[in-house]
Amino acid sequence: MRPVGSKYLLEEPLGRGATGTVWRARQRETAGAEAAVAGQPGETVAIKVLKEELANDADVVMRFLRERSVLLRLTHPNIVRTRDLVVEGDLLALVMDLIDGPDLHRYLRENGPLTPVAAALLTAQIADALAASHADGVV
After folding, report:
1. How far is the CA of 134 from the CAs of 99, 109, 128, 129, in angstroms?
2. Phi, psi of 96 (to 5 degrees)
3. Domain 2-100 has CATH 3.30.200.20
4. CA nearest neighbour of 9 among 29, 26, 31, 32
5. pLDDT for the residue numbered 90
6. pLDDT of residue 56
7. What pLDDT does residue 38 have?
8. What pLDDT is stored for residue 30 in this prediction?
9. Residues 16-31 as b or e (16 or more Cβ within 10 Å = b)
């Protein structure tokens, strides 16, 4: 396990994107006053770590920090909650709630197509989250 800041330990990668990797991580100690949302020791979280080679690009870093500010404003049951920002040397990481389970692509591959009712319910939840984001000036 690799430490991130003083409060988190990376456990396993969950996914990789163009700007970084999202990890399953564990909180080592109770979050301090600088955390957006306090957690409990041992709690599992998701941490998006910016690629090291991008940490020296001022534009990328500003977008990453802006993403954190936007995500902190969004409060909706269908939007993942952002908890904390870790800045340590060249390391930048966003700490979020972990939503355990498969992504939609994997779910469909393993279970087949959604029923029309399930698809409508999922679409309504997505639309509701987008409406909340739009109302907050994000989308």
Report:
1. 23, 31, 10, 9
2. -135, 165
3. yes
4. 26
5. 84
6. 86
7. 58
8. 54
9. eeebbbbbebbbbeeb
Which residue ranges of the chain lie beneath pLDDT 50? 33, 35-36
State the Cα–Cα distance between residues 21 and 14, nearest whole angstrom: 8
Cβ 97 vs Cβ 46: under 8 Å: yes
Contacts of 104 (CB under 8 A, 6+ apart): none
Residue 26 in tokens: 């564990």
Give CATH 3.30.200.20 domain extents, the chain: 2-100
Q: Diameter of the chain by CA atoms?
A: 49
Residues 6+ apart with CB under 8 A from 23: 10, 11, 12, 13, 14, 46, 47, 48, 49
User: Would you state the pLDDT for residue 12?
Assistant: 96
Residue 91 vs residues 67, 86, 126: alpha-carbon distances, Å: 16, 8, 32
pTM for the full predicted model: 0.80
